[in-house]
Structures are given as C-alpha cells and as structure tokens.
Amino acid sequence: MNMEQTGSFMPGVAKSGAPGNDDGNYIAVLGGIETCGWYVDAPYPALLEAASGTRCLNLAKPHAGPDAFLGDEAVLAACQNARLTVIAVSGAHVVQNRFYAMHSRRNDRIVRQTDFLRAVYPEVDFSRHHFVRHMLGELYDRSPARFALIRDELQRNWIQRMNLLCARTGGEVVLVWVGDRSPDDPAETVEDGDPPLVTRAMLRALRGRIRATVEVLDISGSEAEALEGKIYGEGQEHAALRVPGPRAHRELGDRLAAAVKPILAELAPSVSRPVARRA
C-alpha cells in the first residue's frame, strides 16, 4: 500500500503517514474519490478529525471498490489497529464478477472482458471499452433484460465483498453514503446515480459490527452550483462535476463526528493485533 497518495493538481488528496506510535488511537477511513477529497480544500476525513479530536488515517484509493482494500494487507492491518473504521459505500459496478476483470487498484478500469460476457452480448465490440461505467451504460441501452443478468450478479457480489471487508477490519464500522441519489432511489443502471447499483435492501443485508450509517446527498441544480467552491485546473471541470463539493464534505464531517463520538467514548484505544487471514 502506498500510504502517501499523490497526483497532479488534486487538492485535498490525503497525505497520510503510517500509524506510527499512535497505539491504535485513530480512525481508519476507507473510500474512493469521494474520500480522497479531490477538488476540495478539506475532505471529510480531515473535518472529522478536527471535529472529533481523534486522528483520522485516510486510506482512500481513487475509484476503489471493496476488493482493492481486501487485497491490501497493510490497509487491513491499519484498520484492525484502529479504534474504528469508516467505510464509504462504493458502487456495485466495481466488484469482482464473471463478466469483466478490473485493474487491481483502479477498479474503474477494465483489464479484460470474459468469454461469458461476450456470449451474453455477442454483437458488442468490446475493444472500445476500457472503463467499467461507460461499458455498463452501453450494455444497458442495448438490452435492459440482458443487463439484468450482470446487475444481479454485481449486487450479490457487492453484499458478499462488503460483508467480508467489514469483517476483516476487525472492529467497529461506520458506513458513509455520499452521492447524488438516495439508497431508496432506483438503481437499475449506472446512469441512475452514485453510488451505482446499490440499494437500501443491499445496505440492510450487511452484517458485522456496523454501528451507524451516515447518509449525505450531494445534489446540485446546475453545473455552476456543482462546481461552487471546488478547486480545479484547466480541462478538469468534467471530472470535478462528478465528486462531492465542500458543502457535502462539511456535512459529512459534522454528521460523522456526531455518530462516532459516542462510539469512541465506549472504546478504549486499540492495541496492535495481526490481520485476520482468509479462510
């Protein structure tokens, strides 16, 4: 795991060191670009740290689903040593499945489509598709009925992988839902909004020591409103439109602090313990 995330003109990306001598007195935070805090000055993990008085170790990875963290033993060790772990809900389109293989760290990128997917959509030229979201959007447009086969598997796998991730953190978990749709809204296609393809029923199917779920909607009435307060360079407007803005981060920081303070009050600082191995 690269504990220090860097990138060209990405204000707010976490620059987090190893836990060091904290003796487990920190909160681990897992998530994707919404947690990295791209294009904002203060991402919600930093605001949570300020509001809670407890250090937050931001372990976010751009475009990461649960498998990106399950494959990183250093991240799991940091979570197991933490007092609690905050996990931002990812879309179901970035979990392992039988239809396409993704980049191990950037789960939005396709490594290859499987023969199974080609059999379901024999008319599609998959050589044009390098990104998961774009491909799934076209597949739905071509055949909602056939796309349902993909969606159903992605949703089942998402529940399984999220349950495993929650278990392997080894402690208390708080979930974060941030996006432009509620988990009660339709989730038939990736175009229905973020996080894609995840529903309220899927959240309720999660097990383990999930102490709270904090939900914040980031909905803007115009592009100008969506870009308000964001920091971006030339040609980055489209990318900046797709991530939460400062207002959503502030609300997340405040609401997370209210959720975690009573939990932290119950818990003594953690002690180091080995990462649970896969069965």
UniProtKB/TrEMBL annotation:
Superkingdom, natural source: Bacteria
InterPro entries: DUF6473
Positions of the DUF6473 domain: 21-263
Pfam families tied to this protein: DUF6473
Name the UniProt record assigns to this protein: DUF6473 domain-containing protein
Organism: Palleronia aestuarii
